[in-house]
Amino acid sequence: MLYKSSKPAATLSPMQMKRRVLTIATLAALIASACGGGSSLDEAAEAIYSGSCADDNGQTVTVYSGRTEALIKPVLDAFACETGTKVDVRWGDSTELALTINTEGDRTSADVYLSRSPGPVGFLEANGHLGTISDEVLSLVAPNNRSATNTWVGFSGRKRVLVYNIDTVSADELPNSVFELTDPNYKGRVALPATNGSFVDWFTVFRDQYGDDVATQWLNDMVANDATFYPNNRAIVEAASRGEIDMGLVNHYYNYQEAAAAGDDHRAANHDFDDDDIGSLLIITAAAITATSDNVEAAENLLTYMLSEPVQQYFSNETFEYPLAAGVAPADILPPLDLDSSGSGSVSYDDLGGGFEQTTAIIEASGILNQ
Amino acid sequence: MTNLGTGNPTAPRARARAPKARQLTSGAPPALRLVGLVLAAGFAFPAAYLIYRNFSEGADPGGLLISRRTLEPLGRTLRLAVSVSVSALILGTSLAWLTTKTDLAGRRFWRVVLPIPLVFPTFIGAAAFIRTMNPGGIANDLLANVGVERTIEVRGFFGAWFVLTLFTYPYVYLPVAARLAQLPGSIEESARVLGDSAAQAFRRVCLPQMASAMAAGTLLVFLYTVSDFGAVQLMRYDTLTRAIATNQLANPAAALALSLILLVLAGAVVTVERQFSNRQSQSGRTRGNRPVIYRLGRMRWPAFGFVAFAALNSIGAPMVALLDWAYDGIRRATGDGRGLTIDAGDVWVATYKTLQVSVIAAVVAVGAVLPIAYLVGRYKSRSGSVANAIVISTFALPGLLIALSLRFWTIQSDLAFNLLDNTMALLIFAYVVRFGSLAMGVALVAVRSVPMKLHDVSRTLGAGPVRRFFTVDLPIMSSGLLAGAGLVLLSVMKELPISLIVSPIGFSTLATKSFSSFEDAFVAEAGILSVVLVALSFVLSWFLVIRRAEHL
Hints:
Chain A is α/β, with parallel strands linked by helices. Chain A has helices spanning 14-32, 43-46, 69-83, 94-104, 118-126, 135-138, 197-210, 212-224, 233-242, 253-262, 296-306, 309-318, 355-366; strands at residues 60-65, 86-91, 112-115, 152-165, 190-192, 228-229, 247-251, 268-271, 282-289, 322-323.
């Protein structure tokens, strides 16, 4: 870079010297400086708490959040402001953060772990990384939305639905049950997010309730009916909106997010199966406290806060999820839901006996991944 | 270090052991060997973790390897990696040749733009590509307006091959362009004077000189393709990385065994590439030689069309969707729609952090691989070759595994934990371990391009080893090393698992922020952040290219 063929290499022209100094100065500035952020609450957080911020209470809680920053940061900001507890967050993918905690073991800095779906929480529980949560916190949600062994608690819900393209699918074609999707009418029209966390959770519950034979048969029939594979919910909703596929099994909430982002350009809608159909399962997002946490009090305060009325209202209004506590009703645009009858919380993932390993094996064997 | 470069090419021992190895000396200085050893140990952390965990989990890679559940995805991984390697080699080399050796229209602009595909995080790049190119997508709508119905769906093997070729050709393009830029024009001129046509001169002079840079770049394409998960998953092509991902929680032993299979595969391929590159001869740059520039003549516009078409697909297609998302989001936020979840301050901080870590990591990575490159390139040291293989094959491992391995080793001792936990130093180290491979091959090519004759002359004139390094080696190697730094830089900018897991708590980059937005369908935010990422890479690429152009 400093070499010019017409000049001896060791001599620098003033221009080159200047540039070299500039380069070094830029590097030095990059290395030396660090950045701080502001501390005032933004609009979204103000929807949860609009008072003035409390003084620092000396407590800190470290959160590993598999829920995304866009949705959860306002909640954590409001909590920090209202209580004076310092909140440190590591954002990431639920599965990857669960693996991180599993790797860090006793030395993890995580006090609280937030997951998009129950699977990774079950993994942490099975590996002994979760502490118990007090009854006061657990009792804020219905029994089927919390752990039977007191290690995790649901804080919002995402319902399984069928997303469909409103231009290519007519209302009378829409099924009442996932079992209808194996019908020839749906040949080559249905997408499954077969490797996605919430689908794997759903299929594990499906196996638990109907037995391996029925569940495996259903999946094999779907494959035989030319169901197509997509890697995740978001990709299905996006493809359904473009008309690349007619319909797909997803969590309800992605369609609301896409619609909120794209307005009328978005050409997909949700269809609910019958309430008692396995296709209408509520997949909860879960919070847990790590076994080695030194900040249990602050951690429990955070969990309680997440189940409080303003935060549950926020989940309902802003993120279009189903609230699970404080008697908050789902937003008007969401179909009503009977919280006591649905929910995956009634299923103990441990009792399924290597549930996920078997689920993954069945999914891989079905051939759906090559569809 | 006193005998750095003291090797006598005609020393009997060296000749007896490696008769063809001109310019190579019998032994590396002990200090350099020690440095190389320490560096190799640093790069070996992920592999050591993987092997250790395979034992501790009682994994059975041998048994898994012969099962259908493994062989089929493995076969697809290999098929894809070989195909992408071939096409990226052809695309990258021709783009490099056209932009450095010909009078292609707008070649300065192309040189700045062509490295950019490296900066798209594959999960969002592939999604943007799908959004533009697939049925109902933006390009299709445009084509439909002019009466063209296009229904090819970019997916499966074809989709993965197409997208990965477009996203990985810079691994070939950058090193080859760097090599061509410093190629002595005199040999080509002689060839032409002696009656060779341009094509003959290319085949007999340019090609042999480019071969090791091409091989090094293609190796990176191969290893990247093997490790990719973002693109293959969105294209729905079921490879080994998918099998690793789905088994991580469900069956950790299987996931670890499959990862080990990847590593062994990578090690084998790296060894083969070394055998090939060791046989390539290279002549160094001699002073005062301007590279030969070919006139394209009649081929001027077809060549321009080819380069423009490549750029349109690799950069234009994803950019269309990203800009569309960003534009929609800003329009809605400034109107009465939903507000954005990020503000200018967030974007600025993330931009700054991205720039900071990527520049530092690029500089450190080049510094870290250089001693190993010397051991291999100048002294043909066996320990250097092993170190080289460790550095490069690490690139085939999924980023998550590298991130977890470094978390794992940090917690093994109080000292390491107290010293490194939650520090930028650990983050930079992790980036260097993951991406050092990108600088390794290029650094090796650069080291070998230094003519030993020059060394001998300057030693005779009394220059010490340090002075020789700065006045003889570095100026000649600079364009190669810069290309290596550029590869690392652009890769760190888009990196995800390490930026998320190994970083100090609260750290975020443009890539982590756009990941966080994209996961929950906040496409406007993801679009804005990605556009900023591309703009930033454009500026950096411009900086690198303009600097390099100084001595063209």
